[in-house]
Design a protein that fits this description.
The structure is a single chain. By secondary structure, the chain is of the alpha/beta class. It folds into two domains: 206 residues, no CATH class; 169 residues, Rossmann fold. Helix 1 crosses helix 8, helix 3 packs across helix 4 and helix 15 crosses helix 16. The chain is globular.
Length: 383
């Protein structure tokens, strides 16, 4: 499939997806209906079919790609979507669509047909695929790919510049974004054409201008087995819920990495490109307590952490270290980051969780006008 043919096909795929609206029915959204789901909210209703389509396509590519795993697009897919697939298999073994036996109710063969020169999205827009098992991983897939291509899409020569320079139709914008995904992230691999189309239309429906102004929060946690246990999972849940319920929830993207080792940090920073880094865990005067390969405590000296943050100084705006004795790290980190929030002495688990709830609740309420100093003051009042 030549680049020109690929672009013509992309326009056809995007035009089929653009009219999609609210799904006629929802399946399995018990928590969603109570507005308690941490991944989806009622504000996402218009996107549910698109997320579902992405979930099914990811499943289809997971089935098809073993034969193409050595290609550039295959490696990109495995790197970005592999953790999502593994997480679904681990956390939802009975219900994941990424099981060893693909659900018979879901369509299949899209990746193979696309690789054969016949890309299509027909059928993926069907209401029967809209289920919590497809939409949740689909949403994760969208954000993983958007983070990977953000510099390309939102840069001076990307679709966002085109959007700001003059009026452009949603369909034209969708084609431009999808083509950018296809060429810049997916190596113009024919079997990825439907995936690129879904990603492009998702970006349009999600308000592309807002996505380019997105604040990514990277939540890092470590809980070594030879130290006392702390409430990290609760802290993460409360932060996620504060963002989901916030007025400006669409301006924030929360990425989490748990059981973090020092060797994980560079990859996490490169993948997420965060504006805010939040560490939850233990701390000593010698540094933050990360994990080693056995899950035991391995301290990270503040100088080593500062060296990593120095590489992110172009986009990193704030670091929150929710750990004991972290104020000792703050002076060194402040040389590379405008705002560093740290804890002096010991801090209890309930106080740490309360601080995080107040801080991110304040950021979510303010949106693009968020002020870290004001959010800090409000968070302290919650403790």
């Amino acid at each position: 499939m030549s680049q020109t043919t690929g672009r013509q096909t992309m326009a056809d795929l995007v035009s089929q997806l653009m009219p999609l609206g609210r799904p006629e029915r929802l399946i399995g959204f018990a928590d969603f209906k109570r507005d308690r789901d941490p991944e989806l909210s009622p504000q996402d209703l218009l996107l549910l079919q698109l997320y579902a389509g992405l979930g099914v396509l990811a499943r289809d590519l997971d089935l098809y790609l073993p034969a193409k795993a050595e290609t550039a697009a295959g490696e990109t897919f495995r790197h970005l979507v592999g953790p999502i697939i593994d997480g679904n298999r681990r956390n939802f073994p009975e219900s994941t669509i990424f099981g060893h036996e693909p659900p018979s109710a879901l369509p299949t063969g899209y990746a193979a047909r696309a690789a054969a020169g016949q890309p299509t999205v027909q059928g993926l827009e069907g209401a029967e695929i809209v289920h919590e098992y497809t939409t949740k991983p689909g949403k994760e897939v969208f954000y993983a790919f958007f983070r990977a291509g953000r510099d390309s899409f939102c840069g001076p020569d990307g679709p966002y510049a085109r959007l700001r320079s003059g009026k452009v139709s949603d369909e034209e914008l969708g084609v431009r974004i999808a083509s950018a995904f296809y060429d810049d992230v997916l190596s113009s691999d024919p079997c990825m054409a439907p995936l690129a189309a879904y990603l492009g239309v998702c970006a349009v429906k999600k308000e592309f201008a807002e996505l380019c102004d997105l604040t990514t929060i990277l939540f890092l946690s470590a809980d070594p087995t030879n130290l006392s246990r702390i409430l990290q999972s609760r802290e993460l849940r409360e932060i996620r819920e504060q963002i989901v319920r916030a007025r400006y929830r669409n301006l924030f993207d929360l990425v989490d990495r748990t059981a973090v080792r020092a060797s994980d940090l560079n990859r996490a920073f490169l993948d997420a490109k965060p504006q805010i880094v939040h560490f939850s865990g233990h701390g000593t005067r010698d540094g933050l307590c990360l994990e080693d390969a056995s899950g035991l405590m391995r301290p990270l000296p503040p100088e080593a952490l500062a060296a990593r943050f120095r590489l992110m100084r172009d986009h990193l705006r704030c670091v929150v270290i929710n750990a004991c004795f972290s104020v000792e790290q703050a002076a060194i980190l402040a040389e590379h980051v405008d705002t560093v929030i740290a804890m002096e002495g010991d801090i209890s688990d309930p106080a740490a969780v309360a601080f995080s709830m107040g801080f991110y609740g304040a950021l979510g309420a303010a949106g693009s006008e968020a002020d870290f100093d004001e959010a800090f003051d409000l968070a302290c009042a919650e403790m």
